[in-house]
């Protein structure tokens, strides 16, 4: 018979589901998303070239998509990393006091003395 209580009293262990994915997995996922986006962009360029004479409106939409997709792909990849890291804590404004200046007094530099004996 199992004598372990169903509920434990005390602090709960940290859930591993809140842990971040590893950097290599994150980079692999971002690369995969970027490659897919560039594949869609390449398809847009092909559609634009194939439909330029017959359907200029479709060709123009494909051209706009081909120009916009790289920017969206990069922004989406970076946004995914920020969302995974969580919210950044607010930075505290630290005011440093200005450094006190040390005033140097003028110094008289004398030429080296010459040997009078000689």
Mean pLDDT figure: 76
Note the run of SSEs as H and E. Answer: HH
Rounded to the nearest angstrom, the radius of gyration is 34 Å
Structural class: mainly alpha
Largest sheet composition = none
Number of strands: 0
Strand content: under 5%
Shape: elongated
Our count of helices gives 2
Distance between the termini: 111 Å
Helix amount, in percent? 40-55%
Question: Could you name the ranges where pLDDT drops below 50 across 5 or more consecutive residues?
Answer: none
Care to describe what's here?
This protein is mainly α. The chain is 50% helix and 0% strand. The chain has two helices and no strands. Helix 1 (23-51) packs antiparallel against helix 2 (56-85). The longest helix is centred in the middle third of the chain and has 30 residues, at 56-85. It is elongated, with a radius of gyration of 34 Å. The termini are far apart. The relative contact order is 0.10. The mean pLDDT is 76.
